[in-house]
Competence protein
Amino acid sequence: MTAEHTGPLTAGSAAAELVVALRDSGQTVATAESLTAGLVSATIAGVPGASAVLRGGLVVYATDLKHSLAGVDEQVLAGEGPVSASTAEQLAVGARIRCGADWGIALTGVAGPDPQDGIGAGTVFLGLAGPGHTEVMRLKLSGDRWNIRFTATQAAVQELLRCVRGESLTR
């Protein structure tokens, strides 16, 4: 497999490196995406050879689907809301379990332009769940809807690559 890029989502991203790292480690990934609505899966799938590592993904844009498809606890959704660290963590775990993958990536947030439930545009929670590893990070992104969604996607790919390589969080 080469590290060639085949589309605008993969160009300049770490997606090709992620596919190679997952393949070389014999691991797979699945996604649960809210604000990115499938961009992370599409980015990974844009890399030749992705079928060996990408199990699938859940687009859970609606709050009720975060529970019914990804298994986020209804009490977490009611108490903390769909845009929270706990929701992102449970989405990542849900993607991993429901799709039978080694790693789960989750993104939930507000792309804007308006705040949602008092949470400002650009607030994003990224959840990662893998073998013996779960972490959530809060991102504060800027720009228009597309830029926020695209930047969140790039961050998700880069952070999962870091995890698959066994590197520590440096932020």
User: Anything to note?
Assistant: The mean pLDDT is 94. The first helix runs from residue 15 to 25.
